[in-house]
Amino acid sequence: MPWIQIRLNSNARDAEALGDELIETGAVSITFQDSHDTPVFEPLPGETRLWGDTDVIALYDAETDMKLVVAQLENSPLLEAGFIHKIEQIEDKDWEREWMDNFHPMRFGQRLWICPSWRDVPDPTAVNVMLDPGLAFGTGTHPTTSLCLEWLDGIDLEGKTVIDFGCGSGILAIAALKLGAAQAIGIDIDPQAITASRDNAQRNGVSERLSLYLSKDQPKDLQADVVVANILAGPLRELAPMISVLPHEGGLLGLSGVLATQAESVADAYRAIFEIDPVAEKEEWCRITGVKRF
User: Fold this and answer.
1) Class of domain 3-90 (CATH, top level)
2) Which of 49, 96, 133, 241 could bond to 43 as cystine, CB 3.0-4.6 Å?
3) How far, rounded to the nearest angstrom, does the alpha carbon of residue 218 sit from its chain's CA centroid?
4) What is the pTM assigned to this prediction?
5) What is the pLDDT of residues 237-247, one digit of tens each?
6) Tens of pLDDT along 270-290?
């Protein structure tokens, strides 16, 4: 069916409230878009991160009287009189097919491919992880996930135990298992991430070797040979004492979810315990790796 949308400019303080008002006028969906293409972090579970200047885009059925919608918005305390707006007709498409066409098999490092289930596997002899976009973060498309996957592909995981701290979709834990790890442990604060990781592990035939815990339930004495945490710079700094105890002495640590401007401060939070490698960078995002000192 055809659609029509209205685009309004707002800010981080008012954008969500404006979105709620647009829903009340009959909008079927709301999208928040950065007005200046400012890079932001992936949000924490249950959190909506907005930019300083935010376009609020509301989608309506094409039969909607947009003059009436604009008239209702003129009474909004969140908008100034004579507010600027743009109304556009949206081409009718098979949106599900459009969405699926955006995901292709992706190669990371020398051996590893991440493949959506509706695509043919490019190399049956490679290490193939079948993963579909879902409720939890992590499909390999984001540079931070890519950096972590490339790191895992480049280290010896044979027979090792790996902890994926902030497992999201389980992509890193599952990749580690298919790259030779004997056991993987996924930890997350979001129950949806635990469900997604379990489902993806079953799809890839590794569920018997993957243990999953909500962070509040993880064993106190948990340790592993390799620990990877692809979350956010703030939590990586704040949780450094908790994350630092997870690798064995001589164990490997990989951290991502960090912008280049934040890499030094995150690395500093771990230097006392880890020998830190040179930082790897991709599209303004970084990966910090190191070895735990004896």
Assistant:
1) alpha beta
2) 49
3) 22
4) 0.68
5) 999 999 999 99
6) 999 999 999 999 989 999 999
